[in-house]
């Protein structure tokens, strides 16, 4: 397989899994939408106001070039962001706002792009509080920066003034020593020292004066470039955006859950390959008379399908497969069973009998599911009057228990009903009289003897019939039958030497594929009235029956 074919196959698998799990995807998505709506409705209405401050290069405010102090701009901006987030500034804002400070729902402080501007964004349920808080942050921060810078310059100036005062003390001391009339050389030294100290004192006093000027004129290298305005509309909640985000999240989670569940789901699917079941698939039957909604099928009543329907074509295809499997055999006894109850084996057995009869085959359908017979419900007759159990118990001959069934096409076959409900179905089906009955049915010359047998896993009745059949077909309901249960059914039948001829997939999707070419050619109607039936003559032995007059049966219309 090429890469393109593999990718296409994977896409189809994913699409099929999502289609099969559509209910799960829809439910999770709806839950996510509800969460999004609930989040929006339960969230408070918030307003946001933003003030902006700019960090100025400290060197730009220097009084002289000697006082310029170049700093790293990006580092300075990040430093000021941290100062704006400090507890000290938060307390100052809370003190200015008073009781309104409790209405602040959030403060966001960040640099605007790669610029020198810092945005101060305050959220509150009150637009007035949001505006006041944002402006308070900006104003108090600017004032704090101004006070901090002024304090730094003032402190430097004070230290220089102190140094000048110390120099003045030394100068005064030198003046006293010069006034004492020292010698010429000593006087010259003292005078030189005094003159040097006076020059130093003058320079220090000049620097102190410059620092005092800067302390008075500096703005703290910060300016307010935009005061917060009163917000006119709330910024939260954004219901539309929340719903979109939660919807996308729900689709993502739902799809993932669907794919995960499909990956670990061992139920038989419509795309199940024969090697997955261990036996060949001899037929696929669409859902009978139901409509799929959200990937699920509504249960349909058990019935014989319309011969012009797409599902009838599926049964004709199954009947053809069964006929070819019987080529070369004088008779073909086929048991229809399943792993569990409710998988449609009886409905398939009934419709397969109709399809084979429509092909001109002599067919006998045996209702051997003695614990829960349903063929009578399908054909509209009472199975409890007499039937299989009556023959096995010796209460009635076989010929009197047959019920001829005529389909809407005019073709007929014989049904052997279950009969009265026995207390020991397994003993009856495993008795020698059951073997004699099967031999008698085989001797009638019927082309096919179909046995609607019980499910394998709940009871052992079908295992008792396995050696009496030429083959056994196992019905697997798509989306219901577990592969493990199917494999266990195959193992049990093979353990008793039962010949499993294949699987019949029931309730598959896409019934329309059987009808895409039209059904004008497939409608078979009989214009001749059905002929009157004659009694089924009893063959030799208590359970015998002669050649079955399948084509001359009295009509029990389906």
How do you describe this structure in short?
This protein is an alpha/beta fold and 558 residues long.
List keywords for this structure.
alpha/beta, eight-stranded mixed β-sheet, four-stranded antiparallel β-sheet, Alpha-Beta Plaits, single chain, 15% strand, 558 residues, Rossmann fold
Textual characterization of the structure:
This protein has 558 residues and is an alpha/beta fold. It has three domains: 17-43 and 237-264, no CATH class; 47-226, Alpha-Beta Plaits; 274-518, P-loop containing nucleotide triphosphate hydrolases (Rossmann fold), CATH 3.40.50. The chain contains 17 helices and 14 strands. An eight-stranded mixed β-sheet has the order 5-14-13-8-12-9-11-10. Helix 17 links the parallel strand 13 (471-477) and strand 14. Helix 2 runs antiparallel to helix 7, helix 4 packs across helix 5 (127-179) and helix 5 packs antiparallel against helix 6 (184-217).
Helix-strand blueprint:
Elements: H1 3-20, H2 22-42, E1 47-55, H3 73-84, H4 87-97, E2 104-111, E3 117-124, H5 127-179, H6 184-217, E4 222-226, H7 239-264, H8 274-277, E5 281-286, E6 292-293, E7 296-297, H9 310-325, E8 332-338, H10 345-358, E9 363-367, H11 375-379, H12 388-392, H13 398-401, E10 403-406, E11 412-416, H14 425-429, H15 432-443, E12 448-452, H16 461-465, E13 471-477, H17 483-495, E14 500-508
Parallel strand pairs: 5-14, 8-12, 8-13, 9-11, 9-12, 13-14
Antiparallel strand pairs: 1-3, 1-4, 2-3, 6-7, 10-11
Helix pairs in contact: 1-7, 2-7, 4-5, 5-6, 9-10
